Amino acid sequence: MSPIPAPDARARVTESMSTETAPETEDPTIPPTAPSSVVWCCGRPYVLEAGRVRSRWVGTDDRGRPETLSTTQLQRRGWSHRRVGSRRRAG
User: Fold this and answer.
1) 3-state secondary structure string, the chain?
2) Which of 2, 22, 45, 54 is least enclosed, having the fewest CB within 10 Å?
3) Are 31 and 39 in contact (CB under 8 A)?
4) pTM of structure
């Protein structure tokens, strides 16, 4: 049985995992290709669903309806690994 790390050691591991970014060698204009990856586009999250033939990005439109995008459509609209902001106005 392996020893359990001290609580502060676990916190450091969790913190380092949550702040990781994509390696600098990857092209920042190409979205991730791993299934279940999450990116932000137009202030909303999109998840990559792996299909048998082609993967697609699934999210919702500005009215909350399901919406699918191809990687090309996602690139045209602009995307980010982090939520940049929403186009919605505060009421």
Assistant:
1) CCCCCCHHHHHHHHHHHHCCCCCCCCCCCCCCCCCCCEEEECCEEEEEECCCCCCEEEEECCCCCEEEECHHHHHHHCCECCCCCCCCCCC
2) 2
3) yes
4) 0.64
pLDDT in tens, 35-46: 999 999 999 999
Structure tokens belonging to residue 65: 């309806």
- Token reading at 70: 């191809």
Q: What angle do CA 57, 27, 18 make, to 5 degrees?
A: 70
Q: What span, in angstroms and rounded, lies between the C-alpha atoms of 11 and 17?
A: 10
- Token pair of 35, please? 């299934």
